[in-house]
Amino acid sequence: MLILAFDTATDVATVALLRDGEVLGERASRAVRVLKDAEELLREAGLETDDLEGIAVGTGPGSYTGLRMGLVTARTLAVSLGVPVAGVPTLDALAAGAPGAVPVIDARRREVFTLARGKPVCVAATDLQVEPGRTYVGDGAVRYRDEIIAAGGVVPADDAPEHVPWARLHAGLAQEFGPGEAAEPIYLRVPDAERALSR
Q1: Which CATH number is 2-90+165-190 given?
Q2: What is the tens place of the pLDDT at every residue in 88-128?
Q3: Which of 26, 14, 28, 21 is nearest to 58 (CA)?
Q4: What is d(CA 34, CA 187) in angstroms, rounded to the nearest whole number?
Q5: Is this structure's pTM higher than 0.90?
Q6: Half-sphere exposure of 87 (CA within 13 A, CB side)
Q7: Within 10 Å of residue 79's Cβ, how many Cβ atoms?
Q8: Burial 25-60 (b: 16+ CB within 10 A, else e)
Q9: Which residues of the chain fall short of a pLDDT of 50?
């Protein structure tokens, strides 16, 4: 199965093209350029958009704007190309890239997104339960490195690949492919714009 996978929930957007689990190409950038990266990956592999058989997309949690962009792109491609979509939680992809590590995404507002008993949660960075000797990965782990290390945790170097939710991991975790609208975002909290309007 030829799968286009991408995640735009964090500051580093990733895009990958895989055929039957083999990575044909992958890109990462600080700018969301999913369509351009996808087009380049297909061209480099000698393939066309019509060859795609599925899309795996990161469903967050993460940046509200980035997450919406990724999901809208996945849904639009699904309709225009007639291919199914599978949503994959960004925290799960981060965890898959660093087995045994705790995924931590910067949620801004001095909060982080992480997993608690396998479920995504949003907690104050100061309330992150750090296990001594355990490794923590993701942009949230980088941002709160000092606090995590002070509590006995381990954080890889800032530029370590474990901090990125690589799209190839999304493709490997994708299980149920279906209509694009079935890939629901994981927000965990109200967007800033809605909070401002309610004040």
Answers
A1: 3.30.420.40
A2: 999 999 999 999 999 999 999 999 999 999 999 999 999 99
A3: 14
A4: 21
A5: yes
A6: 20
A7: 13
A8: bbbbeeebebeebbeebbeeeeeeeeebebbbbbbb
A9: 195
